[in-house]
Amino acid sequence: MKVEETVSIVTGSSSGVGAALVKLLAGRGGKVVVNYSRSAEAANQVAETCAALGAETLLCQADVSQDEDCRRMVSETLSKWGRLDVLVNNAGTTKFVQHGDLDGLSGDDFKHIYGVNVVGPFQMVRAAREALKASGDASVVNVASIAGVKGVGSSIAYAASKGALITMTQSLARVLGPEIRVNAVCPGFITGDWLAEGMGREVYDASKAFLESKTPLQKTCTPESVAESIMSFIEGHSVVTGQHLVLDGGHLLL
Length: 254
Fold this sequence. Notes:
By secondary structure, the chain is of the alpha/beta class. The chain has helices spanning 16-27, 40-52, 67-81, 107-135, 147-150, 156-176, 193-199, 201-214, 223-235; strands spanning 7-10, 31-36, 57-61, 86-89, 138-143, 180-187, 244-247. It is 50% helix and 15% strand.
């Protein structure tokens, strides 16, 4: 798929991986939907950057855990451009709880995390299905995590939700072909404020230093490197669907 002139929705694109991706798409001539749930100011800045790169941009506030918001975002996209070619389910949430602290998670915590991380992507795909099929060569990329592969990460609830997202990627790939490819990326440690604030600066720095000294590639992910891998599923891999790609510098090999 050539990105030029395509229309892409990237959920959770006011910061981090989502922001890096919409800027990359915009720079290659794509039309982009910048989505946010609460961070209006940051999303506006991202949209302005995309516009400065020459891209037509739609700014859309929507909470992907709410089905009506998902349907509205797709409807607004189609009203503006009449097509949809790419959906990247990047919006995510967590609660930082040590895995041994089983009392630190409630049923409501699981429901909230699953609502954004699993139900949200399903609802977005359901809302976008017909428009993506009409594209004829569409790509859905789900942003999962190494947490869903290895059972690690910010909390057991988060790891479980990302494992479910990987499984759902396979299920959706079976039923959405041949017009739509569905794949996932599974980043490891991603540098940035989100992890630093959640983990605390001391733990964040120690984890980063460990991974950059012990993994085979001696590096961790950045939002930009994850965005580049997502782009590989959008632009290439024309015979690949239902797969997940681990981005971790070799962490799984330890």
